[in-house]
# Entry
Amino acid sequence: MANKTLGLENRLYDYLQSVSLREPEILTQLREETAQHPRSRMQIAPDQGQFMALLVQLMGAKKTLDIGVFTGYSSLVVALALPPEGKVVACDVSEEYTAIARRYWQQAGVADKIELHIAPAVETLDKLIAAGEAGTFDFAFIDADKNNYDNYYERSLKLVRPGGLIAIDNVLQSGRVADPLEQDNITRNIRAFNQKLHHDPRITISLVPIADGLTLALKRP
Ligand code: CA
# Structure
């Protein structure tokens, strides 16, 4: 799981960041703290975060889903891009990782915009659907356990409005998806998932090769 953009040599990637990255100090601090974490590769790339913030602003999003919080970068970068009344519904199973996230959300002054649910995300999403929230979200980011991607995608597709956007992370798996010798479970599941989305008539699709591959799926009316 790369947290820099695949296929760009370091010098060019550094240049890209030097002329485009406008990372708020609080996000830089969070990224630096997370870099010390043994699972730091689960963090999204800063240029990817900035891209997602731009998408959310472009859409005028107010209500979003963050499936897979880890130490909170994706929730925070989106929350900062939302209007004051905006809301992020964040799903994760780890109290330990999200304790770091909460600390940064507080410090950034957006803790009241982020509603954290500690439970398997499928349960949280099913509860939202049962509570009548289908069609009410503008944006969803899927970045939790890869073997559940299809479950997260199907539920997100219900929860976003027509014209809403689902962004799915790590769809290139550091390049493993394109190597037929790679036959581990996650790679096979992501391959099948990518193929399914390619032909899914419910969405308009673009696979953006930013970070570890980010598929954008726009829900058709
Ligand atoms: Ca990821």
